[in-house]
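Translate structure to sequence.
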């Protein structure tokens, strides 16, 4: 079985100019402006049967790609060197070479629509093998060139901004993130040797994605590659994030003094599928809780919804990981998931308002029920109690 992707390694950042035009497959510079490029491609895909009705408030381009042209151009600038480095001679069935913009458009459409290689190929006038090759080249380039868009906050200023935004939601002080997990389901034949490995508790074949999210719904840390039958707390405990926290190398910033003699450290929050740890706070269990605890749970839940919405938007934007993927390569799937997370973050980093026009569902993991961990650490119990009393103004002054 393949090993999981545990967090992200730092790689050299690639300096690219925003809005750079690409080159044609033959290596000659593109002369068309992006508008002319889109006009030509949109006619081709309409002629090939992709008649996407514009969503309310969006033009045709935004409806097809679910992002602004500015964001699209930035993505092109990231992958330009890799996509155009080799003379792949990718061509449309008409014989016209594919430009950089054409290649990125095809890859984004494949990832964003979730349509089959054949369906995407037919709509663009390409063979399904060309769609596959172009998409994979894009994925390989993005996981190398776009990693700077998925990182844990590196400065005190950046972390303070995150804490401030979380506190504005429902008052939780010194909170640095929300952890949650979702299942990427797959269609695997029962005859496949590894079929049982990927069979989860809901009788689906799936791979799990764990994400730690900031208040702007940006992914700050991800883990993927594990079979979907692994419980949330086991995925978390296997993560590099957990190991760094245990070593005191993560969530180790300034403590916050709540009152004289009472202070709290940095922490993240999660649902009852996770253990209560000195740096991971979960809700109180039980019904008919006393007011301080029930109030804490309400605040905790409202803050936790940031991660829920982030995972919903991820799957709505990048539908290749929303439905059941048809016999995916389990070695390649974690890399596809990572690139979808990078693209999700890029849209946020570009302050792209197109995403705000998209309608979202309410559940990123429909059909899955919550397993309760129940494990707790005495320091975690103490931290949660301090937070509960502080939020209900019951700490001694």
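Result:
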């Amino acid at each position: 079985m393949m090993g999981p992707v545990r967090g992200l390694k730092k790689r050299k950042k690639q300096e690219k100019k925003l809005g750079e035009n690409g080159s044609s497959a033959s290596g000659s510079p593109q002369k068309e402006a992006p508008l002319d490029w889109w006009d030509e491609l949109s006619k081709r895909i309409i002629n090939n049967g992709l008649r996407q009705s514009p969503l309310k408030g969006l033009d045709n381009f935004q409806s097809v790609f679910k992002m602004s042209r500015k964001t699209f151009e930035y993505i092109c600038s990231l992958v330009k060197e890799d996509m155009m480095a080799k003379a792949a001679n990718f061509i449309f069935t008409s014989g016209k070479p594919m430009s950089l913009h054409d290649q990125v458009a095809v890859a984004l459409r494949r990832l964003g629509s979730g349509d089959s290689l054949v369906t995407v190929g037919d709509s663009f006038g390409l063979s399904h093998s060309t769609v596959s090759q172009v998409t994979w080249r894009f994925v390989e380039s993005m996981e190398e060139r776009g990693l700077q868009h998925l990182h844990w906050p590196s400065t005190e200023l950046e972390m303070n901004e995150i804490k401030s935004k979380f506190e504005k939601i429902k008052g939780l002080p010194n909170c640095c993130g929300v952890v949650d997990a979702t299942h990427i389901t797959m269609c695997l034949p029962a005859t496949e040797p590894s079929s049982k490995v990927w069979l989860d508790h809901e009788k689906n074949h799936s791979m799990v994605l764990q994400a730690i999210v900031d208040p702007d719904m940006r992914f700050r840390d991800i883990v993927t590659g594990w079979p979907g039958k692994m419980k949330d707390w086991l995925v978390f405990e296997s993560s590099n994030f957990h190991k760094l926290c245990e070593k005191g190398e993560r969530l180790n910033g300034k403590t916050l003094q709540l009152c004289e003699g009472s202070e709290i450290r940095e922490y993240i929050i999660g649902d009852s599928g996770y253990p209560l740890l000195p740096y991971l706070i979960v809700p109180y269990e039980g019904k008919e809780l006393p007011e301080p605890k029930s109030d804490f749970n309400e605040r905790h839940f409202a803050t936790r919804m940031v991660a829920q919405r982030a995972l919903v938007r991820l799957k709505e934007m990048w539908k290749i990981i929303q439905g059941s993927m048809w016999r995916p390569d389990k070695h390649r799937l974690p890399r596809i998931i990572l690139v979808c997370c990078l693209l999700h973050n890029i849209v946020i980093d570009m302050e792209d308002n197109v995403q705000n026009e998209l309608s979202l569902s309410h559940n990123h993991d429909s059909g899955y029920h919550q397993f309760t961990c129940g494990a707790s650490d005495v320091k975690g119990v103490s931290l949660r109690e301090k937070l509960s009393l502080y939020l209900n103004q019951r700490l001694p002054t």
